[in-house]
What does this fold into?
Amino acid sequence: MTRSFFISVLLLASIILCNCSAQIDSHSIMTYNIRHGVGMDGVLDLERTARVISAANPDIVILNEVDEGTTRSFGVHQADSLGSLLELFAVFGRSIEYGGGQYGNALLSRYPIVDFRIVDLSTDSLLEGRSVFLSRIDIRGDTLTFMGTHLGLSAEERRVQVERIIKVMPDLDRLILAGDFNFESDSDNYIRLTKYMRDGIKKTSSTPLATFPADKPERRIDYIFIGRGISVINSGEFKHPEISTASDHRPQLLHFRSSIPRVNP
It folds into this structure.
């Protein structure tokens, strides 16, 4: 065996090991406003919702407009149902009482959910109540915090809600915040929030795709914001034949890794 051949083998082995390490250390997160499973065709089909999510095979999913035992969704606990269909851990985060049940956000995760709490974002207006959840997830021994929210319909309401979210943000190094924010990237509320966090999708594209309405997207109002210690790998665009009909929003997907070294106990 020649010296040059031996060196070539070592280099090839090193590349393979690096690629395997990158795959092990990388994760994916999706944010998706599912409109309680009702598509652009007006049909409630939670299995269709699951098919769209499954096509991206995300490790973590933040959902908006999720029903929990409401009459319009036939008493189904949608977070648990989607978790079962996708074989993911599931937790529901209430925003309001609605239709004999509850309505809000949800978290699905391939990794163990360490804890989960809800912070009320409702304002003094007569508009719909809102919330944000905070959850720590153990990702192969590395604990990251995920926040999921769905902000209000008025700019002033969103201003108050963004300020509350900023106040309850934990360690910015290990934080991801995602959901339906109902604002665009030229708004004051977006500018305010990005003083603390980065727009994850925009790290991979200077012109991110619009997310709403799903059949003919014109506005980007769904985001994945990342903390200082989160590195973006790519925006993970994916295709599925039902993506334009399963909800009135299109999902956003981001592949990432934690760039903060793990501290062994």
